[in-house]
Amino acid sequence: MADDFASLVCPLPECTQDLYLNWRVERPLFLGDLATPAPVDPGEAWTGDWKVECVHGHVVLVPGPSGCQQDEVCAGDCDCDIDHDEQHRTFRASDIVRLSALLAQLGGGDSHIIEFTDNGWTLSHPLACRPRLFECEVNRASGAALHGQPIKLGRFRCDVKDGQLVVGEAVADA
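The chain above was modelled as a monomer; its predicted structure follows.
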């Protein structure tokens, strides 16, 4: 079972830093703020934006297009999953779906993918595996089991069962 609290890591090559949802909110400061000092809450922001990035600054996702297709009738009161304007951007369920698809495309999703070519084989690890590649049981099993020319060329899901490498279904090229 997957650990729901396992950190997502940057999908860019050679980067194993955690991903963060970084919000930026802005509000002008006024002369009155100086005259009567009081806390300013992020909820008082005039604009808000976000991005998903790692600590190295690799930005992997930004908000999608804004503007509801029903804006004339809903006036911002519909249950669509889109921001109604550029001023106040929220991290929506549709953004999570986009992030998941992007991570699957760049990092192999949550499966190990093995590619057999005329020159040998290459193992792609899921993002959660990257910080501990040398501890990966699929990595160890692949190194122990694969010698010589592959029987079939292509990309396949793979896993380990009872200590043995199991090559599963073919996957489409990325």
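The mean pLDDT is 81.
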